[in-house]
Amino acid sequence: MMEKKAIEFKPSNLDLLLAVIASIGMPLLCGFLYDFTGSFIPILIYYVIFCIGVVKWRKKSFEYHLPQNWDWKIFIALLAIQIITQILALIIIIPAASFDAIGFYLTLFIWAPVNSIMEQLIWIYVYDAFARRFPGTPRKNLFVVLGILLSIILVGLIHAFFWGKFLPGFNHIAPFYQIFFVLQLIITPGYILLYTRTRSILPIALIHIISDVALVIGAGYSILPSLFIF
Description:
Layout: H1 13-37, H2 40-59, H3 72-92, H4 101-131, H5 140-161, H6 176-198, H7 202-219
Helix pairs in contact: 1-2, 1-4, 1-5, 2-4, 3-6, 3-7, 4-5, 4-7, 5-6
């Protein structure tokens, strides 16, 4: 998925519509389907149709290339926030009811890296669809804000209506849970800020994978039981 350089994305009104569908409709659909099929089909819809299909179709690029400017101050600051967040997660995470070694290692070495590579593709697409729609016009700032809000809504809804149904939960232990929640709210706009400075998804993925790995290790979690409902 590594690419030499990004292709300039010039969104149209179609991208605004797709961004709204991805932000609101897609999480609701995935959550609805999970109750009937398990997580496998919704994950395919999320990753293959939206993260890969829509992004490649509309942006012509996954933007997985080495950035010319890593903006190390923002990268290191966001990395530090992520590490602190996951240390807190290890304190408050609810362990899996039972430990399945095969499922655990498959989840750790397949799902965690795949998820950390995939998710932000659609998160950033949603932001870009709005933020780049009206460059150099009075509407630009408004649409940048809308892009940030929709990206945050997407992250919130996909976790609330889909991932939250089967990924490990967290104990509401004060003040750790409250701090964890606040830091989580900072991370998504932080990803967007890092992307606008680097124009690359790679730095975001390197930070994101810490979250997924910590989740799996901290809970001893296997995604296999959730894949299919019989």
